[in-house]
Amino acid sequence: MFIASRTRSDGNFICNEARISADKLTQVMNQNIKSEASSSESGPKDAFEQVFGSEHSGRVRCVGRGPTPSKYFQNLESQVRSNSEILELKSRMKGLEDKLDIVANALQIIISNNQFQTSTTETKID
Q1: Domain locations in the chain as residue ranges
Q2: Ranges assigned E (strand) in 1-126
Q3: Are 7 and 25 in contact, with CB atoms under 8 Å apart?
């Protein structure tokens, strides 16, 4: 995200400092990926912290000055809950659609049988 937000559409960095920081970040991420097999402590997630230092309290990196950690991560948790609720509701809706199809097919069979019985009864009366 850091690299993408500091490159122009032609692929060039917006400034020399951004290019240097991106190179350092890429190098640390590559080192972490190589050492990931031997140690699970360091990974790509902490590469940003290794290059730019630890997080300042009360701030969330790369999201601007507005959100605080408590508000930002609370919103993320509510989005995860909302997404899981949406998936559950979609699953329930699919099940109800399947049941509705079964009922509709059964009703069509009953109606066609009733029409057949009605037509045979009318022919007997005549």
Answers
A1: 1-54
A2: none
A3: no
